[in-house]
Amino acid sequence: MAKHTGIWAGLALGLAVALPLSAQDAPTVDTVVATVNGQNITLGELIVLREKLPAQYQQLPDDVLFKGLIDQAVQQLALEQSVADTKSKRDEMWLETDARSYMAGKALEAVVKQAVTDEALKAAYDEKYANAPDTTEYSAAHILVADEAKAKELKAQIDGGADFAELAKANSTDTGSAVNGGDLGWFGPGMMVKPFEDAVIAMKPGQVSDPIKTDFGWHIIKLAETRTAAKPTLDQVKQDLSSEIEQKAVQAHIEEITAAAKIEKPGEGLDPKLIRDATLFDK
């Protein structure tokens, strides 16, 4: 929809009056709202078009949307009719794959809805957090430089009494933390690259590490303090748990459906490079 900005250029320019409907018939999804060269456009099609709109367009007043959607549907149908005689095998396959994708998504809607319940969320939370061991968080600062020689030079200065924070401000290439004396704030397991995290775990508060190499360069790390991390509440991790439950339910359903289907793959022996050969449509 966003690609066809011309169709929507005049949508919000003013209010519009809906097309009159038959007074004696209650509107249904089959109610005709417009015709193009004798081909009908129905109210149901307008409802679907509205559902496809980006969120910002869906907030427009109904009378503006109604007129805009009729205009869009009319223009699209007129354009479709203008090339109807040129529909190619590629066009048919695009339409088929789009329809297949839509119906596949529809097949999973109920699966997801049934899977993510309050009970499932509570069970997932308990499994992941209720009996999980306490974790440690770390407050540390670092100085990041490009080469080992520079890192060793700075470490020697620190050992000699130089101020860590001042050296970080003057030398660290991590400008985001350098302005704060190299302070990285609090972080937990998995938030830093492994060599950095391993070094921090092995340190004691107040200790300064020897130079540590990571993909970012050479670090000198100063551990300030540690604390036991509080377990998150259910509300704090609800979205993540919902995604995990959805993913598991979807995967299980797909496996069940495909296992029950008779599946043959005669094309597996073809050259994989053929998926890039669009000239096959011309043969």
Provide tags for this entry:
Chitinase A, domain 3, alpha+beta, 6 strands, four-stranded antiparallel β-sheet, two-stranded antiparallel ribbon, disordered N terminus, 283 residues
Largest sheet: 4 strands, antiparallel
Structural class, by secondary structure, is alpha+beta
Gyration radius over CA = 31 Å
Number of strands: 6
Order of helices and strands: HEEHHHHHEHHHEHEEH
Here the CATH topology of the domain at 136-228 equals: Chitinase A, domain 3
Shape: elongated
Number of contiguous helices: 11
Rounded to the nearest angstrom, the distance between the terminal CA atoms is 32 Å
How much strand? 5-15%
Provide the helix percentage: 40-55%
The second-level CATH architecture of the domain at 136-228 is: Roll
Strand arrangement in the largest pleated sheet: 4-3-6-5
* CATH level-1 class of the domain at 136-228: Alpha Beta
Low-confidence stretches: 1-19
Mean pLDDT: 90
